[in-house]
Amino acid sequence: MIHKTRGIVLHSVKYSETSLVVKIYTDVFGLQSYMVKGIRKAHSRFSPALFQPMSVLDMAVYHKEKTSLHSLKDVHFSFPYQTIPFDIRKTSVAFFMNELLYRTIREEEPDQPLFDFLLEACTRLDKPSATVWLFPLYFSIQLSRFLGFMPHAEFSSARSIFYLKEGIFQENIPEKEEYLDPELAGYFHSLLICSWDDLDRITIPSPARGKLLEKILHYYQLHMSGFTGLQSPAILHTILS
C-alpha cells in the first residue's frame, strides 16, 4: 500500500554497486529504512542529493507492517536548503544535529511533536538570520524533552548547581557527582526555558559554549543507555570558536 509522508534523512549506506539503504525519520511511521535501487546508475529516477543527511523530503512510500526495509515510489525535496550547504558554520551545525539524532532516535513509532521540532530546527537553521553560535546547545537541550530526560527548570540564586545525574538544580556542590557550576548552570537554564526566537538575546562566551556542550553530551551519556561520544563537537569547536 502506498502512503504519503514527510521525512528527514539521518543516514545512508551503500547496499550494492547501485543501491542505498537510507534511514529516514518520518512523520507518519517514525524511524524507517528504505531501499533505493539503482541510484548509482546514470539514468536513476532519484538524485543522490536527495539523500544527504538532514534533507527534508516529501515521499510516497510502499509500507508493509512487520517489515524492516521498505521502498520508495516517489520522493522530492520538501524544503530545499538555501543557506546551509553554502555556509560552513551551518553545515557543521547540521552535521552535529544529524550525528546526535542518528545516535539517539531509535523508535519506529511515529512522534509528531518530535518530527515538528526537527522540521522547525532545520528550517530555522537555514534562515539567513539564524543564531548559529547557540544552535547546537539549544538543539541538544530541547531534544532531551522528546527523549524522556528533559531537565527540571528550577534554577534560582539558591539552587544554582545543576546535578547532571539527577537532572535537577540544587543548592550545594556534590562531593562525588558531576555538576554544572553556577555560571554554566545559569547559561544552561537560559537555554532550557527560552524559545527559538529568544536565542539572539542570549550571549555565552566561546569557552563556556564548548564546555557546556561537553557537559550536555555527558548528560546524554548518563541518561541514555548506549549513547557514546560524537565526532562533530570537535568540528564545531574549530568552526564556531
Q: Could you explain the architecture of this structure?
A:
By secondary structure, the protein is an alpha+beta fold. The chain folds into 2 domains: 2-77, Beta Barrel (OB fold (Dihydrolipoamide Acetyltransferase, E2P)), CATH 2.40.50; 84-240, Recombination protein O, C-terminal domain (de novo design (two linked rop proteins), Up-down Bundle), CATH 1.20.1440.120. The protein is 35% helix and 21% strand. It has helices at 88-104, 112-126, 135-147, 182-193, 206-223, 232-240, and strands at residues 2-14, 20-26, 30-36, 56-62, 69-77, 161-163, 168-170, 179-180. It has a 5-stranded mixed barrel with strand order 1-2-3-5-4. Strands 7-6-8 form a 3-stranded antiparallel sheet. Strand 4 and strand 5 form a beta hairpin. The longest helix is centred in the last third of the chain and has 18 residues, at 206-223. The model has no long low-confidence stretch (mean pLDDT 92).
Quick overview:
By secondary structure, this protein is an alpha+beta fold.
Proportion of β residues? 15-25%
Number of distinct beta strands: 8
**Could you tell me the radius of gyration in angstroms?**
19 Å
User: Kindly, what is the distance between the CA atoms of the first and last residues, rounded to a whole number of angstroms?
Assistant: 49 Å
Category from helices, strands and their pairing = alpha+beta
Q: pLDDT average, as an integer?
A: 92
Task: State the CATH superfamily name of the largest domain.
Answer: Recombination protein O, C-terminal domain
- What's the helix-strand series? EEEEEHHHEEEHHH
